[in-house]
Amino acid sequence: MTLLVTGGAGFIGSNFVLDWLGQSDEPVVTLDALTYAGNLANLAGLRGDARHTFVHGDICDRALVESLLAQHRPRAVVHFAAESHVDRSIHGPGAFMRTNIEGTYTLLEAARAHWSALGGAEREAFRFLHVSTDEVYGSLGPGDAAFTESHPYEPNSPYSASKAASDHLVRAWHHTYGLPVLTTNCSNNYGPFHFPEKLIPLMIVNALAGKALPVYGDGQQIRDWLYVRDHCSGIRAVLAGGRVGETYNIGGWNEKANLEIVRTVCALLDELRPDPQGPCARLITFVADRPGHDRRYAIDARKIERELGWRPAETFETGIRKTVQWYLDHADWVAQVQSGAYRDWLATQYGAREAA
Q1: Residue of 29, 43, 103 whose CA lies nearest to 73
Q2: Is 244 part of a structural domain of the chain?
């Protein structure tokens, strides 16, 4: 009884591994390439824990994946590994095609060979759980109903297109070969260990440093926000009881505009770590919008509640307070991940943008 978790040193993956081993003795093998967003410091609490095995490697390495499946004989593959930042996909889509499409294909083929060789109860119990995003569904208008699992795919960025392709591969491997798959599509995650290129951690880190808080366009892009540990509990629910071949949307029931998010973060920082220079909101700076920026995402998470009894435990108010406090308490982690490469990326992304 073992899980193979890909991308388990990244933001969502590391939270999943930590939460899993916080409530189960079932071992976990983590496979991660440790790109800029993968960080072994996220898993430091498991150092010396016999239940956890870390393997530094690439999901596109078929021989490595096959050897891990043969050695550890996991009952499930939980597939988080992905390039996930829309802005990075605009600047360099090739890495997204390789990891998200080729990597998923490689995992599916290795998992299919492994599963086909199993017998009896092992074969019956095996699952391939693919973690995806609501961005595959495209953009919603202000009055449109939230995304359900049957919403047509309309990806609008290289990132979301690559994830949509990976979702289709997973579906095809089930319908063609019978591989027992599960797919989850989540809304925007936030919480501990979030790499500070994404909206919420970037605002926290920049505000603490007295830097500008860049907001795209008018800041009225709406997202559904999901606390990462709620996402992890949803994945556990799907792995435990989801129907093979099905997709489950996991959302937080928290639609918020980006500008509202930034102002909420500022208010919490003003309360928890006041800046002598004045309120954090003085740092908000509107910048030119990014190409093809989706206006609104919203997840209808009634299916997972109806079938598996899952609902998020955190409201946005409780989750964002926990998140801001975590970053205040973990300045050492922030300093470690802010490498030269990361600073170069921020200069590329925002430095050339003129104020809106």
Answers
A1: 29
A2: yes
pLDDT digits (tens, 9 = 90+) for 171-222: 999 999 999 999 999 999 999 999 888 899 999 999 999 999 999 999 999 9
Give residue 343's pLDDT: 58
Average model confidence (pLDDT) for the chain? 94
Taking the C-alpha atoms of 55, 56, 59 and 62 in order, what is their torsion angle to the nearest 10 degrees?
-70
Mean pLDDT of 41-47: 93
- Residue 121 is assigned to a structural domain of this protein: yes
> What distance in Å separates the CA atoms of residue 184 and residue 256, rounded to the nearest whole number?
22
Q: Which of 70-74, 87-91, 130-134 has the lowest mean pLDDT?
A: 87-91
Indicate the number of domains in the chain. 1
Q: Which of 147, 143, 144 is nearest to 134 (CA)?
A: 147
Domain-embedded: residue 93:
yes
Q: Domain range spanning residue 68?
A: 3-189+227-253+295-314
Instruction: Report the pLDDT value the prediction gives residue 337, as an integer from 0 to 100.
Output: 83
Provide the β-strand partners of residue 4: 29, 77
DSSP of 202-253: HHHHHHHTT--EEEETTS--EEEEEEHHHHHHHHHHHHHHPPTT-EEEE--S
Does 67 map to a domain? yes
Cα-based torsion angle of the residue sequence 55, 59, 62, 66 in order, rounded to the nearest 10 degrees: 50
Please list the active-site residues.
134-135, 159
- Beta-strand ranges (E) seen in 258-335 are 284-287
Residue 68 has pLDDT above 90, yes or no: yes
d(CA 41, CA 123): 35
CATH assignment at residue 106: 3.40.50.720
- What b-and-e string marks burial along 99-131, b requiring 16 or more CB atoms within 10 Å of the CB? bbbbbbbbbbbbbbebbeeeeeeeeeebbbbbb
pLDDT in tens, 235-267: 999 999 999 999 999 999 999 999 999 999 999
H-helix or E-strand spanning residue 52: strand 52-56
Residue 346: predicted pLDDT? 59
Alpha-carbon dihedral sign for residues 339, 345, 346, 348? positive
CB 219 within 8 A of CB 257: yes
